[in-house]
Amino acid sequence: MASLLDTRLRAAAGTLRQARDEVDAEDPPTADLLHAIIDDLEKHARMMRAENR
Questions:
Q1: Which of 17, 25, 34, 51 has its CA 20 to 30 A from that of 45?
Q2: How many whole angstroms separate alpha carbon 21 and alpha carbon 13?
Q3: Verdict on whether the full-model pTM lies above 0.85
Q4: pLDDT at 11
């Protein structure tokens, strides 16, 4: 289960990273919010990887 969550969290972060890159030039505040969400998703993914060891 932890491995599946890790995979899904990293996939969601990747999708948001693409959206952030597209939004960055036109709407920097939204890009900052997306960056914060990406950081949080990646933190949770790291925790899932650590749990799966």
A1: 25
A2: 12
A3: yes
A4: 97
Q: Pick from 5, 13, 11, 20: which is nearest to 39 by CA?
A: 13
Q: How many Cα atoms are found within 13 Å in the side-chain-facing hemisphere of 49?
A: 11
Q: What is the pLDDT of residues 16-49, one digit of tens each?
A: 999 999 999 999 999 999 999 999 999 999 999 9
The single-letter DSSP state of residue 53 is -
Measured between alpha carbons, how far is 21 from 6 in angstroms, rounded to an integer? 22
DSSP three-state, residue 26 = coil
**Tokens describing residue 10:** 């990293």
